[in-house]
Amino acid sequence: MSRVLIVEDEVRIRDIVRDYFMSHGLDCDLARNGAEALDLMRDNDYDAVLLDVLMPGPDGFSVCEAVRRGSRVPILFLTALGSERDVLRGYALGCDDYVTKPFSLAVLLAKTEALIRRGGGGDEAGLIVCGAIALDTGARSCTVSGEPVKLQPREYELLCCLMRNRGRVLSREQLLDRVWGLDFEGGDRAVDARIRSLRSALGEAGGQIKTVFKSGYRLEEV
Fold it and tell me: How many CA atoms lie within 13 A of 147 on its CB side?
C-alpha cells in the first residue's frame, strides 16, 4: 500500500483528503504544519507528499526546499496560491505538481497516483527498480539485470529500505531503527557488516550502494 503525507493546517481539508484517499487504498499520515511535516519525513518513508503553502512555522515553499536537499519524494503543492509567480516558484524549488484550491478530489487522487507511479512506488506488482536492481516486494524477491539473487532476510529488508529511499543518505542509526528495530541492542557496526554481505550478494550492482563519509549509505542508479 502506498503511503502519503498530507500537510495541511485546515482540519476540514486535511480530513476530507485523508478519508477520500484511504477509501481508494492509500495509507495517509497527517501533519498540521511545516515543522510536523519535516519531523515525520525524517522518521518515515513516503511515496508522495501533499504540501500546503500557507502554514504556521515553515511555509510549504521552505519545507519543499528543505526536503529537496536530501530526498526525491514526489511533492504536490495543494494551495490557494495560484498565481503564475507562485506556481513557477514551486516548480523552481523542486515540486512535481501543483493543484490550486478549490480542487476536485478525483483529480487530486489521479495526480497523486501518477506521481507515485513515476516515483517508482505504489506499483500494483510491488516492483521497485533502481539501476540494475529490482525488488518484487510482493514475492520478497530480488533480481540484478534480470537474474535472481538470493538474499538473507536482513539483507532483503536493508536493500528494501535503501531502494525506497534511493538517492537519499540514510544514517546507520536510521537503518538500525528501520531494519533491526528500536529494541535492537547491538551497535551500528552491524549495519556495516550487513552492507558488506549485501554488496557481495548483489555482485557488480553492489557498487550502487555508496558509503557517504561520516553520514551513512545511499543507493544510486549507477
Answer: 7
Question: How does pLDDT run across 193-207, given as a tens digit for each residue?
Answer: 999 999 999 999 999
Please tell me the distance from the alpha carbon of residue 180 to that of residue 215, in angstroms, as a whole number: 18
What phi and psi values does residue 129 have, to the nearest 5 degrees?
A: -125, 135
Q: Which residue has the cell 533502481?
A: 130
- Picking from 201, 80, 112, 197, the residue whose alpha carbon sits closest to that of residue 150 is 201
pTM over 0.70: no
The conformational region for residue 203 under phi > 0 = left, psi -120 to 50 = alpha, else beta, is left
End-to-end distance of the chain based on CA atoms, in angstroms?
27
100 CB-side CA count, 13 A: 8
Helix intervals (H) in the chain: 11-23, 34-43, 60-67, 84-93, 105-118, 153-164, 172-175, 189-202
Written as one string, the DSSP assignment of 77-110 is EEES--SHHHHHHHHHHT-SEEEESS--HHHHHH
The yes-or-no verdict on residue 87 having pLDDT over 50 is: yes
What sign does the dihedral 131-135-148-155 (CA atoms) show?
positive
In this prediction, residue 178 carries a pLDDT of 75
